[in-house]
Design goal:
Rossmann fold; alpha/beta; seven-stranded parallel beta sheet; 23 strands; five-stranded parallel beta sheet; 3 domains; about 675 residues
């Protein structure tokens, strides 16, 4: 790396222009990217990282660091430049030169699993600010739970930079409304108010008063009128934001997109395209930048590199606080250290209930409720709730109180009718890195309202638990708007998402065992539960459920089989009932439970073949949803009892019967298949 000196400029201006030109040059080399935001937001980002944020570049996962989220993730070069200049080992000058290239540490949008120092994966607009709400929620919960009058063990801020696009997306409204209600005072959002989006001036579509909107949410709102050059005003606003502890703060920082580019600043043309050689030349002249591409002034390197020494001091100071806390409060300290280590309590899974066929038939959502309330006293890092469906999803942790302003130590979170916000907030809770296990619940059909957050939980390696109920046309009277048909198939298509549809109480317990273990391995799990009651089946198994598929019943050698019936969820009982009738008529039938395709595919080939042997027997799947995808298990000559239309409004039992989900129809389809 070549370095230079330029004593004629202030060091702060050198640092800010270093950020700008690293972004300009990386994007120009890649011929792809978004230079406008890094150029305009560089001053506010510099002030924040230099004067306020507490972090340790040499230990990016230090627990009590302030969290930073670039919600406007398209401006990712802003964050990569900051990480490089602050001394993080995860981003070198060579990484910046490889911006947006194959397996680079500097991908097109920030990715937490690729680049140390990036807290959350951003890009889909609005997700980052909603993740930031989750980060702040986690801090508030842990502070209320562990802090003592004489010791602040948990004490850090969440800072977010968001743009006009984030504020246009509905998810930001959901999450920020929630944050205001909860009084998350350690959340500070800097709004890059540059009035430009891809289509041009935001006036073409976005003319509301954002400040008033945030005030109505219950936020503290400030305005920096000159975010281009008034560093003192930016600093004073952040200082004032930190002084308000009972509500989050939004600082509107008015900037010029692409600041410094004479012909392109303040236009849509600089939002998402490289400047080009001619405009870069003019920008260099305009800003007095005399350095070669990727050349950084030594003064800027030295000045921003002081973050390394500061960060080490911050961490050592906190380590002393932790040591004192351990001596004064050993029980609480042991729990805190278990949380952040990611370890589960010994024997935690022994509390999961098991059932026999003699036990009362209940809806799988009821078995889910039982699991949550058995786990809650033991797995004390479990926190979450429902999108205003607590008493339908049955997700209340009884005796653990409601998470509310002034009671952040409690664990039942009321997200309100905000599915999308709930999903992203849960992702943020997990990405806080404190070992918390978040869960979010709604009806299965409303995963459509939170699909982006669910997808990002899978992509970002987030161990969230998605508790979905009312999983089929058995939902009944609410009709087709509330009856998922294609939903399971679409969720199964998401890589790295474990989808489980349990059939009875034992399988629900098995699903929770998987979900909790997955969380500690940074993998999300989605469980789909029934509204209607289901019997506990002979042969069902908690342990076998963790394998994704297993033989529920079979008294025949594989080569003797005429038919393999494959079921999930509430339809597995139909397979069991049909098998009894068919066997009584002389057919040789195996019943397979397949609650999770992903778990089953993760087993070795020998196990999979032992469950679904490669023999001449026909295969018939039974699931109250689309048949899409089932060909992988039933084969070209197999069959499916499913539903290829939307449902209907009627009692759940009537819907199931009318659409053919009964034992007699399964028997008829089986006979038709095997001739």
């Amino acid at each position: 790396m070549v370095v230079a000196t330029q004593s004629s400029k202030s060091v702060e201006e050198l640092c800010i222009n270093s950020i700008r030109f690293l972004a300009i040059e990386a994007i120009e080399k890649a011929k792809s990217g978004h230079p406008g935001l890094p150029m305009g937001a560089a001053p506010m980002a510099f002030v924040l990282w230099d004067k306020f944020m507490r972090y340790n570049p040499k230990n990016p996962k230090w627990f009590n660091r302030d969290r930073f989220v670039l919600s406007a993730g398209h401006g990712s070069m802003l964050q990569y430049a900051l990480l490089y200049l602050a001394g993080y080992d995860s981003v070198t000058i060579e990484d910046i030169k490889q911006f947006r290239q194959w397996k680079s540490a500097t991908p097109g949008h920030p990715e937490n699993f690729m680049t140390a120092g990036v807290e959350v994966t951003t890009g889909p607009l609005g997700q980052g600010i909603a993740n930031g709400v989750g980060l702040a929620l986690a801090e508030a919960h842990l502070a209320a739970k562990f802090n003592k009058p004489d010791t602040k063990l948990v004490d850090h801020y969440t800072y977010v930079i968001l743009g006009d696009g984030c504020n246009m997306e509905g998810i930001s409204g959901e999450a920020c409304s929630f944050a205001g209600h909860q009084g998350l005072g350690k959340l500070i959002a800097l709004y890059d108010d540059n009035h430009i989006s891809i289509d041009g001036s935001t006036d073409v579509a976005f003319t509301e008063d954002v400040s008033k909107r945030f005030e109505s949410y219950g936020w503290h709102v400030l305005h920096v009128e000159n975010g281009n050059t008034d560093l003192d005003a930016i600093a004073k606003a952040i200082e004032q934001a930190k002084s308000v502890t009972d509500k989050p703060t939004m600082i509107k920082v008015t900037t010029t997109i692409g600041y410094g580019a004479p012909n392109k600043q303040d236009t849509a043309g600089i939002h998402g395209s490289a400047l080009g050689a001619d405009e870069i030349k003019l920008t260099r002249e305009n800003l007095g930048w005399t350095y070669e591409p990727f050349e950084v002034p030594q003064e800027a390197i030295d000045y921003m590199g002081k973050a390394v020494e500061r960060g080490d001091g911050y961490e050592q100071e906190w380590n002393q606080i932790l040591a004192s806390y351990k001596s004064k409060y050993p029980k609480e300290a042991a729990e805190f250290e278990r949380f952040i280590s990611g370890k589960l309590p010994d024997g935690w899974d022994k509390v999961l209930p098991t059932y026999t066929p003699e036990d009362k038939a209940l809806a799988t959502r009821k078995y889910s409720e039982a699991c949550l309330n058995k786990l809650a006293p033991v797995v004390t890092e479990l926190i979450g709730g429902s999108a205003d469906l607590t008493h339908s999803n049955l997700t209340e942790l009884k005796g653990f109180g409601d998470f509310q302003k002034g009671a952040h130590q409690n664990r039942n979170v009321h997200f309100g009718v905000r599915e999308h916000g709930m999903g992203a907030i849960c992702n943020g809770i997990f990405l806080h890195g404190s070992g918390l296990i978040p869960y979010g619940a709604t009806f299965l059909i409303f995963t459509d309202y939170m699909r982006a957050a669910i997808r990002l939980s899978a992509l970002s390696e987030v161990g969230a638990i998605w508790v979905m109920t009312h999983d089929s046309i058995g939902q009944g009277e609410d009709g087709p708007t509330h009856q998922p048909i294609e939903t399971l198939a679409s969720l199964r298509a998401i890589p790295n998402l474990t989808v489980i549809r349990p059939a009875d109480g034992n399988e629900v317990s098995g699903a929770y065992k998987v979900a909790i273990e997955n969380s500690k391995q940074s993998k999300p799990t989605l469980m789909a539960f029934s509204r209607q009651g289901v019997p506990n089946l002979e042969g069902s198994s908690l342990e076998n459920t963790t394998k994704g598929g297993y033989v529920l019943s079979c008294g025949f050698a594989p080569e003797e089989l005429d038919l393999i019936l494959i079921g999930t969820g509430s339809e597995l009982q139909l397979c069991a009932g049909a098998a009894k009738k068919l066997i009584a008529e002389g057919k040789k039938v195996r019943v397979v439970s397949l609650p999770s395709w992903e778990l089953f595919e993760s087993q070795d080939a020998a196990y999979r073949d032992s469950v679904l042997p490669k023999v001449a027997a026909k295969r018939l799947s039974v699931e109250a949803g689309t048949n899409f995808g089932w060909s992988r298990y039933v084969g070209a000559d197999g069959g499916s009892v499913g539903i290829e239309t939307f449902g209907a409004s009627a009692p759940g039992g009537t819907c199931l019967a009318e659409f053919g989900f009964n034992v007699d129809n399964v028997v008829a389809k089986a006979k038709e298949l095997i001739g």
